[in-house]
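Anyone? Bumping this.
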Amino acid sequence: MREDAQGRPLYDQVCSAMDFAAELKSHFDFITCVPDSIYKEVLPHLPGWELAPRENHAIAMAFGARLAGKAPVVLMQNSGIGLALDALFGTFELYGQGCLVVISNRGQLPWEEIQHHHWGEVTEDILVSCKIQVYKFHEIGLAGIDDIARQVINENKVIMLTVQRGNLNE
Amino acid sequence: MNSRVQSIKNIIKENPEALLILSNGLTSREAAYFIPNDRSFYMLHGMGESLAVGIGFAKAKPSQLVVVIDGDYNAIMGLSSWSLMPCSNLKYYVLDNGISETTGGQLLPNLPFVPEWCNVISVEPGKEVTPNPPSPFETWSKCRRWLNELV
């Protein structure tokens, strides 16, 4: 674990935000996001990304794009999972279509604001209990996104990719 | 005032080139049973998401007109997606009977405002006895085939 400029612990950086964005762009051609600070340096490198007002609508927009023939990716914070799940189950899961959902896993670090802590504790358990295939960015690295994209696009799988605070430069 | 089915028939007739997204519940059930066609995408779940699905489609395929037909409770649940409207290739209709018909006819609040891009159509309360719409696979496949044949 490393430290930020204020001496607070951060998870190790996996790659630059720019390289992460470039990898997403190379596989996915419809990107929607409910912004989170972890994506602050990612979004400027994703021209044409669509802002969604809520996480459930981000999922639904991605589903509409999939119907139009696109390969969608959704970016959101873990606090949006509660909103997103019913939309996810009622669209991609129900119709057997693939989507990548990138989840910033806030609340894992002790210095993060208290309102994030519970989400940091339960995020992985929730996703596992929902039988969603989950990958951790700090484990698979940038090279692992290629295989995820193949599963999403060619095998129509719904996959979530968790990103820790610090995995990308902010 | 028309029935739900007649109102949907009118919308379909007025938009012969459009892909149609129909919200879950009676809107999809009655449309699928009485007015089946390959360019209708029947939502089976996801209350409040029909407009967002339509918006995603419209942004991803700007050359294709998409029509979203929502029930009034679906519209209320999806209000935050209104912030992404208007879309130049999306037409939005709300079938308003003032109640939540499938759950026992509970009274609904009115839409807080009706923008000019939102076409509210008053429909008579009441419902037809209809089966669940076709399977998700069938709906998806037919719509995708219809879209592919346009190219």
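Late reply, but here is one note on the structure posted above: The beta strands of chain A are 2-3, 9-10, 30-33, 50-51, 72-77, 99-105, 133-136, 158-164.
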